[in-house]
Amino acid sequence: MASQELQPAPGKKPDPENHPAIDPDDISPIEQVRLTVTNTDDPTLPVWTFRMWFLGLFSCALLSFLNQFFAYRTEPLVITQITVQVATLPIGHFMARTLPTTRFKIPGFGKRLFSVNPGPFNIKEHVLITIFANAGSAFGYGSAYAVGIVNIIKAFYRRNISFLASWLLIITTQVLGYGWAGLLRKYVVEPAHMWWPSTLVQVSLFRALHERDEQRMTRAKFFLIALICSFSWYAFPGYLFSTLTNISWVCWVFSKSVTAQQIGSGMRGLGLGSITLDWSAVASFLFSPLICPFFAIMNIFAGYALIIYIAIPVAYWGLDLYGASKFPIFSSHLFTAKGQIYNITAIVNDKFELDIPSYQEQGRIHLSMFFALTYGFGFATIASTLTHVAFFYGREIYQRYSASYTGKEDIHTKLMRRYKDIPSWWFYLMLALTLAVSLVLCTVLKDQVQMPWWGLLFASAMAFTFTLPISIITATTNQTPGLNIITEYVMGIILPGRPIANVCFKTYGYMSMAQAVSFLNDFKLGHYMKIPPRSMFLVQFIGTVLAGTINLAVAWWLLTSIENICQDELLPPDSPWTCPGDRVFFDASVIWGLVGPKRIFGSDGNYAAMNWFFFGGAIGPIIVWLLHKAFPKQSWIPLINLPVLLGATGMMPPATPLNYNAWVLVGTIFNFFVFRYRKQWWQRYNYVLSAALDAGVAFMAVLLYFSVGVENKGLSWWGTNGEHCDLATCPTAKGIAVDGCPLK
């Protein structure tokens, strides 16, 4: 679509000298916003330009393809909007210099003139392109959450689901929350006290990128050089020398010791001493460490070290909790009492429900010590987040929410009044249509998704109820509690024995809320950058539908073309198609849906004591708060953030100690040492380097797949035979016989 030119010539901006001084009451009450966001706007800047649509749609399609492609790999790199934010800037400027400026008329639009090049590439176009890209990366999740349901049905349960049912499931779960989120904008977007801290990073980067760049080494040149280097290097860990991805030298030294390999394996052990020379291993799961503040890195490292290097060793070797030595120390697989892999397909009947006699024959499901503690700490994280926010931020949240009603509009909200708002009926219509289509899915196609119609309404009600309070928490504290464990726990109790019904309920309940919060977060970015609301809405909606469709198409292609995809026990040692994220999603469907929480964490299971983590997590922040009140002069006490510490390993599994070790190391180098001693370099090139490393790895990985991966042209030598820690998955208990492991 071309840009309609109804304004004065591009580049002619309002003269700030002619504007009256800003009323002090208009200034934002939040200091961080005052320091970051400009108090001016140029409404003459065109936004619906050919450049915006071309680069936006292309970026959205490319990111959705690449992220879904990587989602099945052992190191599932997620390429975020920052890569596009950096990469499209020089492309936009290039298009502004080279596209024809000829004006023309389009039949049906009267005398209005259009042009594919209305002038210089501007910051508002750039923001909308980035919003498109954010939709392509599913707001940071990589790909649409519901694709995981398709993956576990086809790759793990080895059952079928139609393409139509899959597409309806993905699209409805992605856009359902948009309907009620749009109606909540006046409560959590327009008020100045709802400031959404994470958006300020984006605002800062946009402003930095659009400053005049007169340095000898421009950001564009640096990006290109770093991209070429990243692209070229990934040929080694990606194909020629895959062991560079996980260098676990302890396993090489102690090649016959189970305990040593459990300690030293970066992929299947505690990762002590393991390193990587593969950027995809560094940035997988936790995203690029270059964009994470150092204090957050240290918080995560403290929690990670506490859990991985203290709690798990004590539980495994010291206490042998739940017979931990019968199983691997680090695994997301499910086991029998004798340490064998649990045969899940054997306990699923023809109706895709739990086969009770077969389950009783195999016995209770057992978890590795690591996996069991992961759920325990997950319970504690949920509870601690609620009490931490209530006690440490409760008064602030209440005051800011109250101020959002009584306080005056700040300058940003006043400037946004220049643009046409989105009619409420747009959101009502979207909500009604999405619910109607979802109900068709749960009635006409119920045999494929298992979820009853009342389950959809219950999940939607849960998501709607939690959207406003969690949006307020996110907008004021930058913490976003998730509903994933709560939703699967509730549905597992109400309707056990149906795995797909459980994951569908979780996706509608959890993702609808998460998508709504992400939708509002992007709207706040548009609010700060003065983007017309209708443009924001259309870009988000179109980008979400396009990305979800491409996600499914790529998933369908890979699931039907790669033999034994996601079956790590059947794949070659150097195969990247192990689907670690989907393995955990599958295990969750078994634990919460097929078998049900009562047979795992209830009276009929082995892990009922894990429910005490809810209580411990809830009272922990209260104790910290009381200590802070008792000793107010001790400034370090309020720095104890239990939700961060307890949730540090929230990405494990599927993330491994190798990922965490590398992430912390690289993040410390760049966001402590480089930031402290080379601040100007960091300011100019840090985010650019992160984007270039992501892009280089992504493009080489796709090239390798189409050039050698499609025809399985692999190399076979020591450097491509995996991690060389084969004994790391062995049990240490006496009398437990596992193939490939020494018998004690």
Q: Report the major sheet.
A: 2 strands, antiparallel
Q: How does the overall form come out from the CA principal axes?
A: globular
Number of E strands: 4
Report the helical percentage. Answer: 55-70%
Span from first to last CA? Answer: 70 Å
Radius of gyration: 26 Å
Give me the number of helical elements.
28
Poorly predicted sequence stretches spanning 5 or more consecutive residues: 1-20
Q: What strand line-up does the widest sheet have?
A: 1-2
Structural class: mainly alpha
Chain-averaged pLDDT: 87
What would you call the quaternary organization? single chain
Strand content: under 5%
Describe the structure.
Helices cover 58% and strands 1% of the residues. The chain has 744 residues and is mostly helical. A two-stranded antiparallel sheet has the order 1-2. A two-stranded antiparallel ribbon has the order 3-4. Helix 27 (657-677) runs antiparallel to helix 28 (679-709). It is globular, with a radius of gyration of 26 Å.
